[in-house]
Amino acid sequence: MRVYLLSTAIALAALALGLWTTEAALTGAAPISIDRLGPWRAPARGGGEDDPYAHARVERSGEIPLGLGEGLRLTAQVDSEGRALNAACLYRVGPRAPLARYWTLEAMDDDGFPIENAAQRYVLRSSEILREPDGGFWVWVSARAHAGDWLPIGASGGFALTMRLYDPALTGLAAGADSAAAPRIERMRCG
Hints:
Strand 1 (34-37) and strand 2 form a beta hairpin. This protein is elongated. The chain has a four-stranded antiparallel sheet with strand order 3-9-5-6, with no helix packed on it. It has a four-stranded mixed sheet with strand order 8-7-4-10, with no helix packed on it. Strands 1-2 form a two-stranded antiparallel sheet. The chain folds into two domains: 1-30; 35-190, Domain of unknown function DUF1214, C-terminal domain (Jelly Rolls). It is α+β, with helices and mostly antiparallel strands. The protein has two helices and ten strands; from the N terminus they run αββαββββββββ.
């Protein structure tokens, strides 16, 4: 009887561990097939069609992914200091982005959908933002309206930022890009 109970406990623990690691791989919580660029994360570009986790993430999200030559999706759930993004705070994103013909920046909820907001503004495009004389930019992310390029977010809870690079100069993050190529996400104040 004791052997049976021990075997059952081990089998249940193995099943729980297997389910947890699968969930972590599909949601990006585990560092499987993920490249980092400062606070930004992107699917590794080397897996191609042989990467079962990439296929599973696409099937799960229902999103049509950008092809290798079309673009790259970067996602940040933390600021440049590693703190979780919080809707009660004011952030500024900038002053540069990786080289790409065109890019977009949007705020996403925990399920990966654009955040509803009173301004009905869901995305900022590189073609419509204000630029500094040196080409730099600053995008303000907050629940309250802000002067300049403002990306509104919901009034409470966590969120993520997604930057899509179209026709990027980077073919893969591991191919020499460093953190200086990505926008910083600076928390200015909370409350």
